[in-house]
């Protein structure tokens, strides 16, 4: 019998093209008067666009325009970016880090670890256990969750909470309140999981859609929240919640057409501009198994105009009306998950066990419902940011805020900001300047 011989493949062969043609990154501050141009040329690979956009947005850079092309084996992007104040990127350390973070990966393994600036994309907080929760949202739910964790002697060191279509998804980092180490005792974790599931179910039987899971690893929080909502099919939620949560100024207009000559499907998006919009859309398309071959991103006053030429990973375009409708719904959901209206409360205080439980309890007792939250603890300092509204969905009465100031103002600093709700607001990029980014704030403290 003839012996079967399989061809030998050098394990390093896959990286050969990258080593021969490493990524080239340039940061140009001369061509454009009002923004910095970041140009990235590299070998094409699955997920590279999301990787680049994720790095730029995690650095708090505002992408005002972008031109993307990755047809064939080469990936070429040009990004027009500014800082949070709308100015060019002139800091030499930041520029150096951009070049290395987007450049050959050999740099990432060595020099980037010792760079004293932000550690992009790392949302871990050291020795922790990550808890992922998703279920039906209701007023006071976050308070109940944090109370359970405090009663079980888990200290919340960081968290990110999103709500959309009356669903809630959150990633919470906890450790033992005595040892400050990750909790790996299966008995304690089992008790915590059961109690959290009971809270998420509430009075109704939500067993099938209320989930709790644990992880000891690392995750990119924003992408993970998108994935959790997508798996939860939040884009199928309808009707009343959308009307309450998103007035006409926020309604995105999304179309899917066919580019017959080139064999692409063309996704066009027009919506209110905001920070991380490009990331949210690219993240969703990637997780839906679509590949972006070309794209153009720009801003027209307070609105963003984005156009993507895509195919499914198997090379097919979007032929059926059902598939087109699903893409539109998923992108609408991705755009809206991060939208926050009304008031944001920024609280800063000396950290202590049960602090988050106490704060969320006070918010609940004052009739405030949390629509989004970011929580982090660095050293002895706790920084919590809550986007809140009246539990009935109405704007928050300022008398309520004053009562809140009196109740918690003695022990912590409280800053109240109003987020714009109209497309006619004078600040076209108001969200970019006032929105809270948990991962970025955390990395500033860790730097």
Automatic annotation (TrEMBL):
Sequence ranges assigned to domain ACT in this UniProt record: 37-117, 130-214, 344-424
Protein name as it appears in the record: ACT domain-containing protein ACR
Organismal lineage: Eukaryota, Viridiplantae, Streptophyta, Embryophyta, Tracheophyta
Organism encoding this protein: Jatropha curcas (Barbados nut)
GO molecular function list: amino acid binding
Source superkingdom: Eukaryota
InterPro entries named in the record: ACR1-12, ACT-like_dom_sf, ACT_dom
Stated role: Binds amino acids.
Keywords on record: Repeat
């Amino acid at each position: 019998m003839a012996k079967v011989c399989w061809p030998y493949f050098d394990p390093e062969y896959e990286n050969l093209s990258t080593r021969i043609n490493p990524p080239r990154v340039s940061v140009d501050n001369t061509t454009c008067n009002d923004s910095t141009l970041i140009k990235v040329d590299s070998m094409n690979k699955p997920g590279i666009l999301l990787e680049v956009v994720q790095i730029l947005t995690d650095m708090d850079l505002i992408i005002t325009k972008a031109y993307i092309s990755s047809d064939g084996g080469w990936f070429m992007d040009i990004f027009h970016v500014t800082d949070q104040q709308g100015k060019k990127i002139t800091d030499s350390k930041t520029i150096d880090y951009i070049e290395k973070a987007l450049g050959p990966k050999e740099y990432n393994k060595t020099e980037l670890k010792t760079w004293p600036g932000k550690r992009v994309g790392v949302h871990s907080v050291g020795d922790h256990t990550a808890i992922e929760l998703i279920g039906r949202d209701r007023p006071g739910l976050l308070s109940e969750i944090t109370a359970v964790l405090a009663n079980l002697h888990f200290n919340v060191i960081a968290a990110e909470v999103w709500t959309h279509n009356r669903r809630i998804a959150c990633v919470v980092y906890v450790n033992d309140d005595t040892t400050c180490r990750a909790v790996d005792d299966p008995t304690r974790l089992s008790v915590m999981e059961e109690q959290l599931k009971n809270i998420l179910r509430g009075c109704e039987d939500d067993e099938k859609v209320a989930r709790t899971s644990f992880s000891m690893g690392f995750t990119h929080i924003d992408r993970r929240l998108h994935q959790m909502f997508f798996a939860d099919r939040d884009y199928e939620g309808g009707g009343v919640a959308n009307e309450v949560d998103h007035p006409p100024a926020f309604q995105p207009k999304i179309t899917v057409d066919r580019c017959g000559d080139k064999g692409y499907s063309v996704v066009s998006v027009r919506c209110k501009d905001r920070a991380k919009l490009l990331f949210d859309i690219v993240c969703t398309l990637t997780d839906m198994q679509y590949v972006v071959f070309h794209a153009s991103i720009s801003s027209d006053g307070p609105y963003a105009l984005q156009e993507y030429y895509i195919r499914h990973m198997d090379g097919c375009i979007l032929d059926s009306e059902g598939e087109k409708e699903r893409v539109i719904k998923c992108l609408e959901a991705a755009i809206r998950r991060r939208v926050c209206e009304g008031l944001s409360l920024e609280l800063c205080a000396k950290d202590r066990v049960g602090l988050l439980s106490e704060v969320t309890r006070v918010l609940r007792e004052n009739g405030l419902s949390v629509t989004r939250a970011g929580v982090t603890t660095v050293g002895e300092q706790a920084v919590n940011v809550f986007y809140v509204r009246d539990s009935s969905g109405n704007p928050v009465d300022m008398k309520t805020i004053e009562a809140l100031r009196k109740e918690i103002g003695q022990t912590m600093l409280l800053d109240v900001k109003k987020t714009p709700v109209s497309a006619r607001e004078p600040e076209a990029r108001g969200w970019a300047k006032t929105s809270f980014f948990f991962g970025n704030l955390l990395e500033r403290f860790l730097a």
